[in-house]
Amino acid sequence: MKKHYAKREITELCGAKRVGYFGLTQFYVALKLIAAAQSGLPVQVESIKCELPLPQFMALKNDEIRYSNPTELHGMKCQIPYVTMEKNSFKRVDDGEKQQEKMSPIMSPVSSPPSSPSSYQRVPLTYGYGKLRSGMDQMHAAPYETRQHTLQQEGSTSGSHGPKPTRRQTSLIQSLSVEREPQESNSNYPDDPWRITEEQREYYINQFKSLQPDLSSFISGSLAKNFFTKSKLTIPELSYIWELSDVDCDGALTLPEFCAAFHLIVARKNGYPLPESLPQTLQPDYLQTAFLKPKWDCALFDSYSESMPVNQQPRDLNRIEKSSIKEKTDLTAPAQDVNIDDKQALKISSVDEAMPKDLSVDTATSKDLNTLKARPRSRSYSNTSLEEAMKRVEEPPTPPPRPQKSHSRTSSLDLNKVFQPNAPAAKPGLLPPPPALPPRPLMSQVLHHNTSNDSISQTKLPGQLPGYGDFRLLEQTEQVSEIELHPQLTRTPSQTEESGSPVKKDLPHTQPPSKPIRRKFRPENQVMENQEPSSVSGTSSVPTVPTVKPHASIQKQSSKQKKAIQTAIRKNKEANAVLARLNSELQQQLKEVHQERIALENQLEQLRPVTVL
Amino acid sequence: MRKKNKNKNNKNLNASWLKPYSLLQNYPLYIRSIPAEQELKFHYTVHTSLDVVDEKVSAMGKALVDQRELYLGLLYPTEDYKVYGYVTNSKVKFVMVVDSSNTALRDNEIRSMFRKLHNSYTDVMCNPFYNPGDRIHSRAFDNMVTSMMVQVC
């Protein structure tokens, strides 16, 4: 209790509240104050001016973690906590300490040295900070390691702790605060305009592919020129952007160069002034390592079967996870063309706003919509733990991923009801909602068709009445197994389905699933044919599905049919709504494109008399 | 003495684009000098030295075009300054005017400077947004020229 109170005081004192987050300065000051508090001194600014023992933190679980002694920091050559073992850092994230929103943007001022570690190293740094934060929360009296981390390029001396820490503390804090500001604007992780986010990266990669399918090859100068002039920037500006981004001056753009150029164009269109020189985060070698980084993270993520407690993660860690995950999927994407379209950022919306509409808007938005619907389905199969984490990251309230595909045959009817109510909740997938559920509508439709077929088959077949009860049981199990087969079967077609409206394909997709089932049940169905169509009334529906499915049914069919019909109706209505919305959006785009065309034609008309000369 | 006298230690760089199919059109793509106020005088100097360049180029004969050296050497020594020339294979001429009092500059250095100029110019050409014949606005080119001039002065 007392500790918490002291902590609050500390955070207040070090100015975190004023600034809104724990900047570097605040962090160091806070650590000093903690040391003061732990040594019994009152928590005041003056108390940190004297020499203090190192603040004690909880023993770290991992010995490989190296933390710098904050009192050793001086000037811009401060040590940054560096986690050597990313694996363990990830595990610690899983431990997921209680959150302090203030602490979350620690990422931003981490890069205090000008030649700060690349973002690759920043990933472990956040985890390092996360652990440090957890240590601070605990405030246990246990020594923590103060070994220097090895990665720091500017050699920070450890011996500086002894000599004149007092004078240097305040001066360094001031210098830190002064020096931090300009750099923070450049390297503030969430806000850095020169850092390519994952969504942007994927968008750029896709644009690159549209110009040059081979990702490892070049885009020629003329091709790039035509492409970039579409961005409607002035030629001198484009020339300058090219000059910045074509590092090797070969007149062609590799993928990282292209991404850098594209990013600069995007920034320029958003109003950012062009930099004097290419920012470090846009350099080709940096981007190359960023492209390669996912391979590292892949291995790391694969080692984790548990999904991370995402809700407890700070926003930046979320982003890092997402970025790592997306990068991982980004890398795996080239291997599978199917997934590429999927993983083209969901958050293209941000890029869409930035990019002018004439830059392949149609493909972007259509891909956007397609990816929105297609993404959940395909994502769920690449890496279950990852995708679960992803789903949880983006849609916390969604139900857990779809139940096991291979649940054993149960005799309870409840499974039907379990599945059916879920079906209306699921939409064809054009909208973000539950990623886990799209196949179910297919299944419910199939079920609906099946049930309708059942009734038909029943009405067709003259009834005999052998062991009624047995058949009911058998029918239940069949339905269960049918349901269980449906998700599998509907998933496979849906997985391959990438473009186009999912709703349209729903109906055709019901065809393939039903066939195997029909084949499977044939021996049993022959037995079923003898069953008397009992009080099955009502559904005089014409067989919309050509494949008649001989399936036994009982009086419960009618209620099931009603439910099925209702769910189907609901689903269709939702699909209609979605399609209508899509239609309106496309109409809007069409209008805009028309307007542009008219404007261009006008310009052409105006120029024509001039060019005639 | 030489180094302190910055005003006189001038360099003027001039590149022209020659259009072979029409009248000789030599216009500068890029001019830079230190100090800037005497630029007009150097315009004149460079323009007159173009004749010397043409003379040297044609003197080599058409048969030797491939082996022709790009560096033309001292074009025109006056009492105040020396003019060096360099022409590329695409008939783009580089003209450098150096103050005569700067005796530290040797031929090799001039050659290396022209080489650097040529490299920077090819980098400028690599930019697809640069149309040959435009004035050169490339910042990289500017920086390179500045560094070179500072080096000499």
Automatic annotation (TrEMBL), chain A:
SMART domains per the UniProt record, alphabetical: EH
Residue spans of biased composition, Polar residues class: 149-160, 168-177, 489-499
Gene: REPS2
Region (Disordered): 92-123, 148-195, 370-444, 483-561
Domain of life, per lineage: Eukaryota
Biased composition (Pro residues): 430-441
Composition bias type Low complexity, residue spans: 533-558
Keywords assigned: Calcium, Coiled coil, Metal-binding
UniProt name for this protein: RALBP1 associated Eps domain containing 2
InterPro entries reported in the protein's UniProt record: EF-hand-dom_pair (IPR011992), EF_Hand_1_Ca_BS (IPR018247), EF_hand_dom (IPR002048), EH_dom (IPR000261)
Gene Ontology MF annotations: calcium ion binding
The EH domain, residue ranges: 200-284
Every EF-hand domain range: 233-268
Coiled coil ranges: 565-606
Any GO CC annotation of this UniProt entry: cytoplasm
Entry keyword annotation includes Calcium: yes
Species of the source: Sarcophilus harrisii (Tasmanian devil)
GO terms for biological process, alphabetical: endocytosis; endosomal transport
Biased composition (Basic and acidic residues): 92-101
From TrEMBL, chain B:
Pfam families noted in UniProt: Sedlin_N
UniProt keywords, alphabetically: Cytoplasm, Endoplasmic reticulum, ER-Golgi transport, Golgi apparatus, Transport
Domain of life from the UniProt record: Eukaryota
UniProt subcellular location: Cytoplasm, Perinuclear region; Endoplasmic reticulum; Golgi apparatus
GO cellular component, one term: Golgi apparatus
Any GO BP: endoplasmic reticulum to Golgi vesicle-mediated transport
Matching Gene3D superfamilies: 3.30.450.70
Keyword Ribosomal protein: no
Family membership: Belongs to the TRAPP small subunits family. Sedlin subfamily.
Protein name: Trafficking protein particle complex subunit 2-like protein
Organism whose genome encodes this protein: Sarcophilus harrisii (Tasmanian devil)
Lineage, broadest ranks: Eukaryota, Metazoa, Chordata, Craniata, Vertebrata
Gene name tied to this protein: TRAPPC2L
